[in-house]
Amino acid sequence: MAKIRPHTNVGLLKWLGLAFLILLADQLSKVLILAYYHYGEATELTGWLNIVRVHNRGAAFSFLAGADGWQRWLFVGIGVAATVFIITMLRAHAGQRLFCFALTCIMGGAIGNVLDRLLHGYVVDMVDFHIGSWHFPAFNLADSAITLGVILLLLDELLRVKRSRS
Length: 166
Known about the structure:
Blueprint: H1 6-36, E1 42-44, E2 49-56, H2 70-92, H3 97-120, E3 123-131, E4 134-135, H4 141-165
Antiparallel strand pairs: 1-2, 2-3, 3-4
Helix pairs in contact: 1-2, 1-3, 2-3, 3-4
């Protein structure tokens, strides 16, 4: 059985704490939207940005939103599996700051959306970018954290490849 080094646990706790802050910010924003907006209600902030309350029963870009409800549990399962995998990766690579920050963003966002699915049966979205009558699919802070995490993972890999070639 492998021994766990104490400094590894400290690094892991730091990343889990950051994921918790992302989760907290995400859930707070959703609580506010649920408390102050009715479904479909929107407030125009600029000519290209609205705050709106929408419910997404699917995944990214409402993928599988029209399914009969089984997708809720599929996405919860994927989120739980991703969280377990990410925690394993964080333990193994706690000193790789950019890599761990990226994974932490993804995990915090994934847990936020999983929590929505468990509590409501849908994900609460509220940010609506648009140009004229074209609207980008509404999203939330969890989605933003996941997107940032994926971008940072790509950057980390590009930097790793560049270092290996030097």
